[in-house]
Amino acid sequence: ALKSSYVTKAQKESQRSYTSVQPQASYKVAILGASGGIGQPLALLVKMSPLVSALNLYDIANVNGVAADLSHCNTPSQVTAFTGASELANCLKDVNVVVIPAGVPRKPGMTRDDLFNINANIVKTLVEAVADNCPDAFIHIISNPVNSTVPIAAEVLKKKGVYDPKKLFGVTTLDVVRANTFVAQKKNLKLIDVDVPVIGGHAGITILPLLSKTKPSVSFTDEEVEKLTVRIQNAGTEVVEAKAGAGSATLSMAYAAARFVESSLRALDGDSDVYECSYIQSDVTELPFFASRIKLGKKGVEAVISSELEGLTEYEQKGLEALKPELKASIEKGVAFVQKES
Ligand code: NAI
């Protein structure tokens, strides 16, 4: 028998904290693109959720190893691997939340729009399968360009006759996570308290942090606003350049995506206090899709917090007007992509 002295106090404590992940609910989550740079750490974070009973991992490559590895963690969810198109339908059966980080990431010099052709096709194919197998699921789109891939997903779902605009989400959580981090650093605030809404879209100037609506209330000089806004808008490029050809943000993205999954599961589970920013079909502006703060409920988007778009500063108002033409063009590009194929 193993003597207890072989196990240090710290090991016991760490074990207690991990095994204390007791099942609290039994939702099924599928990750499509699960062996990628985002997919793997995202799968790990979702594996740690007490709200998940089944974690289905799908990819066109290398997913068996990821699932075998994760399946050894002694947290409640059952991990299953699905490889290749023939196993996609089974992966999606009875799933409550589908997360899609499948696709190619940016390399230095590329914009999110440069990814359009490859990722548009991938998202279209995957969402068709979602429509056929779990039309009731919350769908989280991570694959870029999100400004276009969400309208693509909407068109695909419409064609299949199962589009529920309250359940289709472009994941912009990373913009909020970055804004919170950068503002807390700049203003020496306690990170956990900081909340900056980020609206618009998810590329370049379409990302519009509403610094004037930061909680707790904090004042910025014009120069601080300008610098922080530009940094939040270009934060993805900071990572692309630092990785120097090896891809774009994966770990911070996985963290942000896991937060959005957890929020969705809490909402499904009846928690009445779940708010996130997300890029959705929206009528807060004249554009058909727009990111803003939403309240999540059992049926998806329960309310859009449009009051946050009132009383903007002149800088924010200008930013809002400036982003509209670009966002509009990206939406139209996505819609046209699906329509021309029919
Ligand atoms: P990656 O290349 O490391 O992983 C992508 C994975 O998708 C690979 O495992 C690949 O085998 C898989 N894949 C490709 N085609 C597929 C298909 N037809 N079906 C299923 N899986 C497929 O890329 P990474 O870094 O994980 O990025 C993924 C996507 O997320 C990119 O489009 C990237 O631009 C986007 N992204 C989005 C962010 C956001 O804030 N929404 C932030 C960072 C990245």
UniProtKB/TrEMBL annotation:
<dbReference type="GO" id="GO:0005737">
    <property type="term" value="C:cytoplasm"/>
</dbReference>
<keyword id="KW-0560">Oxidoreductase</keyword>
<dbReference type="GO" id="GO:0030060">
    <property type="term" value="F:L-malate dehydrogenase (NAD+) activity"/>
</dbReference>
<comment type="subunit">
    <text>Homodimer.</text>
</comment>
<feature type="domain" description="Lactate/malate dehydrogenase N-terminal">
    <location>
        <begin position="28"/>
        <end position="170"/>
    </location>
</feature>
<keyword id="KW-0816">Tricarboxylic acid cycle</keyword>
<comment type="similarity">
    <text>Belongs to the LDH/MDH superfamily. MDH type 1 family.</text>
</comment>
<feature type="domain" description="Lactate/malate dehydrogenase C-terminal">
    <location>
        <begin position="172"/>
        <end position="338"/>
    </location>
</feature>
<protein>
    <recommendedName>
        <fullName>malate dehydrogenase</fullName>
        <ecNumber>1.1.1.37</ecNumber>
    </recommendedName>
</protein>
<keyword id="KW-0520">NAD</keyword>
<dbReference type="GO" id="GO:0006099">
    <property type="term" value="P:tricarboxylic acid cycle"/>
</dbReference>
